[in-house]
TrEMBL record:
One of its GO terms (cellular component) is cytoplasm. Belongs to the 'phage' integrase family. XerC subfamily. One of its GO terms (molecular function) is tyrosine-based site-specific recombinase activity. It is found in: Cytoplasm. It comes from Candidatus Nanopelagicus hibericus. This is Tyrosine recombinase XerC. Residues 1-90 form the Core-binding (CB) domain. The active site is at 149, 179, 250, 253, 276, 285 (o-(3'-phospho-dna)-tyrosine intermediate).
């Protein structure tokens, strides 16, 4: 059975391909859904045709399953997961590969949603003065100051914050571990440093009394802060600040990149700070700046129309 090789495939993704845990979890979910589809339709993984694979994509779109509808980006990821598994089996176990020509749908580029500077300031300034609020402000300041992914921030240990002497004086940095285990060191702005120092001196000592956790950000039980809790902290802070749109930790990352480019930062520097493997990924943020310039030109120049 092809499903017997799943464990080896996931080990291959982790060890050989160096994929992150979250990416491997997505592969696992996609393949479990695919095997469920095969089971309810009495189809054999080893004998499925390319036409039947196309039928599966139609099923995902809700054409044959009204209770389950997903977007085109998720369907594209499903294609990549299935094609990856078949490719692995063809290479390692000589199993025929009906997915060789299966192509993911083309996803139109969507401009990431960035907050205005005033919105970010409102969110940062809404925090109270109690110990948990001090922690929450430090978390949001760090997300915005570094452009870190939420997974990178919740996985930080206190020792990952350090001071470095430079020709310009002492700066505070954070060591982030990104996708594929790649590490990068990112400077923290003065406001972020102040918020983190406040948290480290006031809140964390109290939270760490009930725990030996090395984690930088602790929950009220002394454990490492979860992704969901971090997400809720950002969303609730934004709601209290009167920001109407749903705001997530990734909104802070988008805003970090957009505000840097708006301020004239070099795209290669932004790429390095974000931890993007390719500058092509970073270039989508330049579209926001270009679009804003186009709108300003259209509304202000007498010969723009």
């Amino acid at each position: 059975m092809a499903s017997d090789h799943l464990v080896d495939f996931f080990n291959y993704l982790s060890v050989e391909k160096g994929l992150a845990k979250n990416t491997i979890s997505a592969y696992r979910a996609d393949l479990e859904r695919f095997f469920h589809y095969l089971s309810i339709n009495k189809l054999s993984f080893d004998q499925i045709s390319s036409e039947q694979l196309t039928g599966y994509l139609a099923w995902l779109r809700g054409m044959h399953n009204t209770e389950f509808e997903i977007g085109e980006s998720s369907i594209a990821r499903n294609v990549i997961s299935i094609r990856g598994y078949y490719t692995y089996l063809a290479s390692e176990h000589k199993i025929p590969n009906p997915a060789a020509n299966l192509k993911p749908p083309k996803i139109p580029k969507r401009l990431p949603k960035a907050l205005t500077i005033d919105q970010v300031m409102a969110i940062l300034n809404i925090a109270g003065d109690d110990l948990i609020s001090v922690r929450d402000k430090a978390l949001i300041e760090l997300l915005y100051s570094t452009g870190a992914r939420v997974s990178e921030v919740i996985n930080l240990n206190a020792a990952d914050i350090s001071k470095v002497d430079t020709q310009e004086g002492e700066i505070t940095t954070v060591k982030l571990k990104g996708k594929g285990g790649k590490e990068r060191v990112v400077p923290i702005g003065s406001y972020g440093v102040s918020a983190i120092n406040d948290y480290l001196s006031r809140s964390r000592p109290v939270l760490s009394k009930i725990s030996t956790q090395k984690a930088l950000f602790l929950n009220q039980r002394g454990g490492r802060l979860s992704r969901q809790t971090a997400w809720n902290i950002v969303a609730k802070s934004a709601a209290r600040a009167g920001v109407a749109d749903l705001v997530t930790p990734h909104s802070m990352r988008h805003s970090f990149a957009t505000h840097l480019l708006d301020g004239g930062a070099d795209i290669r520097v932004v790429q390095e700070l974000l931890g993007h493997a390719s500058v092509t990924t970073t270039q989508i943020y330049t579209l926001i700046t270009i679009d804003r310039l186009r709108q300003s030109y259209a509304s202000a120049h007498p010969r723009s129309k």
